[in-house]
Design goal:
The protein is about 40% helix and about 5% strand. It is built from six helices and six strands, in the order αββαβββααβαα. It starts with 16 loop residues before the first helix and ends in a 7-residue tail after the last helix. By secondary structure, the chain is mainly alpha-helical. The protein is elongated. Strands 1-2 form a two-stranded antiparallel sheet. It has a two-stranded antiparallel ribbon with strand order 3-4. It has a two-stranded antiparallel ribbon with strand order 5-6. This is Endonuclease/exonuclease/phosphatase domain-containing protein.
Length: about 220
Amino acid sequence: MASPGTEISDSSTSSNYYGDKLLDIIDSHCICILNTGLPTRVTGPSEGASAPDLSLCSPDLASTLDWHPLTSSYGSDHFPLVITFPSQKPIKTTRSPCFKYRLNNAVWELFNQRVEQKTSTYPEEGSQISAEILSQVLIETADKSFCTKTKFRSQIPSPPWWDHECTAAIKARKQAEKNYCEDMSEENFKLYLESAHSAKKLFKKKKYDGWQSFCASISPDVSQ
């Protein structure tokens, strides 16, 4: 990625000394520009489209990479750029099953007692309990005796200070930006800036209040 301070794009109608020098360097080193001319920066109604952020690569990769900016700036004045590289599907490999339970502080004596108590109520086949019954007993007893691990979540968890006000602020900012992209008027641009500023101010306050609350909850009795 590069942000040279001067725009080089298919839609650019102006150039300067630094832009020309950068183009000469790119040409002399056989470097390819992945940009397609789409804007990479949020601009005002009178500024027009702007693409100061360049994505460069070697000629060997240029034909295989896919480049596009996201439609939301997420509160920044630049749109995030996404570059994808096609790859083969990973080979499926078998892995050992992960432990379901947290065994760091397990009380094994209690577990043994419960297993013995449970097995005494099952009928025996010959002189031994069947493997199927024993497996069922162990699983049921473990579920009652040990704490289970938290299930893995693919989504990034929200920070402790996040609440419904933060979610509403994000939603309002996205809607304001969408309205401005559909109609790049002075009024919509002003509303978008106000929404982005309000969201940024709210997040800063929530972070501060959350940290203050956390510090207030700490005492010498809290285990590390």
